[in-house]
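Aim 2, interim progress: modelling of the pyridoxal-5'-phosphate-bound target.
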Amino acid sequence: MTQGFSTRALHAGAAPDPVTGSRAQPIHQTSSFVFKDAEHASKLFALQEFGNIYTRLGNPTTGALEERIANLEGGTMGVATASGHAAQLLAFHVLMEPGAKIVAAKQLYGGSINQLGHAFKKFGWDVEFVDMDDLSAVEAAMDDSVRVLFTESLANPGGVITDIEAIAEIAKRHGVVYMVDNTMASPYLCRPLSHGANIVVNSLTKFIGGHGNSIGGMLVDGGTFDWKAHADKYPTMATPQAYYNDLNFAEGFGALPLGPDGSNVDIAFAIATRAFSLRDLGPALSPFNAFMIMTGCETLPLRMDKHCDNATAVAKYLSSHEKVSWVQYAGLLEDKYYERGRKYCPNGAGAVFTFGLKGGHEAGIKLVESVELFSHLANIGDTRSLIIHPSSTTHSQLSDAQKAAAGAAPDTVRVSVGIEDPADIIADLEQALAQI
Ligand SMILES: *Cc1c(COP(=O)(O)O)cnc(C)c1O
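Predicted structure of the complex, ligand included:
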């Protein structure tokens, strides 16, 4: 019988240390590992044996975290990275070629819009942003150059819940990879791989680490994409690679007996990402951060339940406040994404949502300057309650029309509701709203 989520959030990937008996995951704070002999070293380098070489390529502490997150997401193998953005970079690096295109959701995290829309341009990677609620627009974007469909499960800041199964169907029909950023939901609220996504990326900086103290990222291979059938589109995955003695990742790692009860699983994408992109681009997670994030992950289910309960209470309070014109939170019965939320995020609609102030831009500034318990900063997924007025900060360089399109109109305030006592969170908003 598969263990429950809370049990796995504590135990997956972290048995007591066989050498010392240490119960908590030891921090292997080392750059490199001693080889047993010359043959061992040569097998490790040729990927004929798995083991530790150098922390840029892997480390036992980050490895324990990789096993845990892959388990929670229901994937075959994880690759830890220095940040959420690094996980996206590495995943795209394996999948893309110059001239190839990403079809991405318009409703992506602002940092991802910059990464895909500007930074990736220098690699010759094209991107088309579409409204993922408009399936005919997604279909229209699917020309022969497309290699990846990319959405979030629960999108920041607009409170959008993606119809993952509908997008997965389009990706499958066109023979391209569907990758989902699951940061805002975390695997406790949503498991995109179980709805047909092929790859999941997470910023561990947010809810999984959960305490606002460490940056990290993770990509998880779902093991479901047929690379060999699409070798023309994904040459890194399914053609011989000269830098590894003509190894073909899809053939070498497409069926290894590493599943529960020894069944074969496909880890080709995770291996290619590590052996090629992580090795050569370099954004490895530090073992210390892996330890911090792993400790945070132990309480992910407890925290997420409390985050969701508190967010629902705060959203209900704000919806009936005279100075608030609208609240967008999929946890509210009247919200447009409520039904979809029940399907894809049955444990709750998350902790992050936006609302509008009748007083517009000036009122937004007044609110963030008047809160005392809330912290005014640009992060989400901390244990503490956080608030930001996107129009005067993260989105200040955009025109009013661009702000509105990005879900950051001048009247919009974003909160990431923490796990304090809900009465204290509401009391803080009450006194701050009274000052507008
Ligand atoms: C923060 C965030 C990222 C980027 O993660 P970093 O760890 O900051 O690099 C990506 N996607 C979403 C939805 C995020 O909230």
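The mean pLDDT is 94. The radius of gyration is 22 Å.
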